[in-house]
User: Fold this.
Amino acid sequence: MISLVDPGDVFYFLLCSFGVFFTIKQAFVQIRRRKIRKRLGLFKAKSLPLLDPFFGTDLSVTIFNQIRRSELLEGLDKRFLRFGNTHSFQLGLTSIVATCDPDNIKTITMNAIDFPVGDVRRKGLSILHGQGIFAVEGSDWHRSRSALRPSFTKGKHDDVAVLETHFQDMLNQIALSNYSVDMQDVYHRFTMNTATQYFFGTSPRESGQGRQIERLLESIDYVNQTVYLALVFGSHSPISLWRWWQTKKKMRVIHAFVDQHVKRVLSPDFKSYEVNNRRYIFLDELSKSESGKDPIFLRDQVLTSMLGGKDTTASLLTHVTFELARNPIIWAKLRVEIGKLDLELVDMKTIRNLKYVRFCLLEALRLYTVVPINMRSASADTMLPVGGGVDGNNPIQIPKNTILWLGMFSMHRRKDIWGDDADQFNPDRWENLDPGPAFVPFGSGPRTCLGQQFAFNEASFALTRLVQTFHELEPLSDAPWKEKVAITLGSGNGCKIRLHRYTSSEFEQ
Assistant:
């Protein structure tokens, strides 16, 4: 009589065999790593004391609730204060090391081989950026970088006439609101207009697409939130999948807006806007690159660049305005510095030389870091210079596939670096300050933001013109600042103020 093997028994046998094999393999890996730590004098990063140390279920719930209450950065900051500037924890199957130490962050960002972008960040950012420079690495990153760098290098970031046109549009929008407005919304429209003018050669206002701007901005904001959740919990997490269909619809809106401009530069009868108005057009220049005839490449690169310029500048302007409305003494200092300028002779060179304007923007970048959390992944077993031992000053071992959370927001608010007033807006601190690697608002290393000069020039211009136009900023709410984190940092309570405009006689005085 032939006896048949129960398929269930086979399945359980294979499952148990795999479990035994995996356990033995991990045991040997841990033994090898322990020997390396002993030989090199390395420590393990301090682990958070979790109820579930294996999968971090309790921490996952905590982080989800913090995101829901817009308190993720606050929670991360408290963990750094309580458990050290570098510590480790589990989120599901992912091992994470979080750090706000300047030496560790410098080591990570300067070493793209040991600490590449990694799958988590790549998959998360690709939702919005496709194969744009933010979401790729290796040969794809070098391809994007080589195509974008000449476009940013040759581009004019200081065309005051273009910026003034859009600033006047912004003033009209403020006036329509009777000078009581949420400047966060105003700045996002302003930077969308300036960014599309620079990158595409025409703004939504000029091309008759003004009514579409609301839908486009809403779509960008929604997808940014999706990307943020994917970076924290993974692109295949339940919360990310829940938003998948709506995100896809929003991306169609975004792609349709960019594709119309890509089709223009790829059409046989293409005639550059640059020929007509003699102004530099980013997309036109990018289309001359080696990969400039690939429509998907063009779309992803110019979309990434446009959003980087728009969101970074809007975040910076929102937060510097938020603080200036609550600090009339600082506003008065700006008025003294800028009041000396001849309105008819203001150019970008003059604006760049305004010391206190620069101090205010640097302080806003410190206190409200535009990209508050960055991410990397360990491509192999490696190390970081500090974080181990009782005092946290010894080097630590970083196992392969560990995800690194770089707490830029927390690093920029550390009182042992910036002083007891680290959580206060104080532009005067920059008078004799050289923070070194403790201040990296635009990143550092090979992946330093290419458009940082674009963002800083535009913000400097807008702030200067704001001070020239209004003699007082009055907050409409005493609600404290609240985080709104997506890829870039926003204000959860907005920036609701009343602006008091100069009369001609007042300004002359």
Summary: The two ends are 110 Å apart (CA to CA). The chain is about 55% helix and 10% strand.
